[in-house]
Amino acid sequence: MTGLAPDLSRSAYESPDIVALYARPDGLQKPEQTLLAQLAPSLGTIDMLDIGVGGGRTTRHFAPLVRTYLGIDYSAAMIEHCRQEFPSFRFAVADARRLEFAADESYDFVLFSYNGIDHLDRHERLTALNEMRRVLRPGGLMVFSSHNANYLPAITDRFRFRVHAGLRETLRSFKWSCVFWAKNGLLQYRMPLAAGRVHDGTHSFRSSALYYVRPDVGVAELRRLGMVDIACAGNESHDFVPGDDPRLPRDSNPWIYYMSRKPEQA
């Protein structure tokens, strides 16, 4: 994960158990599989910036194929793991809001996967998106995933108090329901939510609140940024649909992949 998050998140992502958790998955999400297949013919000519690289899940698939690769993360422990696991590739501790190490128009492809951008609040998120756009070459590709606000009813239902057959399970349900609503006391009055931060229980509430955004609102952010060819895919879908697809505002996938391009120079 990359970006300036509260100390709670930084502490969580430096801890050995969380590093180990992110080091285990090695497969691509379905939209990432589509992306890899679409880019396959040109990967050898692409300079790639992989933001929020975590334990290197995306590294093993993209890094061997692109012309140059740099993976960054705000967790030094994650980067140290990646350097040991993938010694042939470049990694650095860095902040998505400040990509000073990169000159303007220096990358062809910027990826920010696994909803890492959601650790930022709205202002920080827009700053990071502007930085990602800045370092892209004209015609360059920006891809990131973000939690879907339409999925929040499922989140709240997950933390609804339930009486179970066993006392231990009932007490556990009561505990986590209390924790959830203590951290999200006004959430029920904000629903349906177009965009906003929610403590969704990630890592047993060890990390900070995450930013949830409705897909059409996320598309609007990219349009205001001046991005073009915007397309979206739910995390369980191989298929990207245009950003103006009328089904997007109601899409209920847990998270959404956003793909867009920086306009070519006139």
Measured as a percent range, the helix fraction is: 25-40%
Label the structural class. alpha/beta
Q: Could you tell me how far the N terminus lies from the C terminus, measured between alpha carbons in angstroms?
A: 35 Å
Q: What is the CATH top level name of the largest domain? A: Alpha Beta
> C-alpha Rg, in Å?
19 Å
Order of helices and strands: HHHEHEHEEHEHHHEEHEEE
Name the CATH homologous superfamily of the largest domain: Vaccinia Virus protein VP39
Q: Indicate the CATH topology of the largest domain.
A: Rossmann fold
Plain-language structure description:
There is one protein chain. With 266 residues, this protein is α/β, with parallel strands linked by helices. The protein folds into two domains: 7-147 and 214-261, 3-Layer(aba) Sandwich (Rossmann fold), CATH 3.40.50.150; 151-205, no CATH class. Helix content is 35%, strand content 22%. The chain has helices at residues 7-14, 16-23, 30-39, 59-62, 76-85, 122-135, 152-158, 167-183, 187-190, 215-224, and strands spanning 47-51, 68-73, 90-93, 107-112, 136-148, 195-198, 210-213, 228-234, 241-242, 255-261. Strands 1, 2, 3, 4, 5, 6, 7, 8, 9 and 10 form a ten-stranded mixed beta sheet that branches. The longest helix has 17 residues, at 167-183. The radius of gyration is 19 Å and the shape is globular. The two termini are 35 Å apart.
Secondary structure: elements and pairs:
Elements: H1 7-14, H2 16-23, H3 30-39, E1 47-51, H4 59-62, E2 68-73, H5 76-85, E3 90-93, E4 107-112, H6 122-135, E5 136-148, H7 152-158, H8 167-183, H9 187-190, E6 195-198, E7 210-213, H10 215-224, E8 228-234, E9 241-242, E10 255-261
Parallel strand pairs: 1-2, 1-4, 2-3, 4-5, 5-7
Antiparallel strand pairs: 5-10, 6-7, 8-9, 8-10
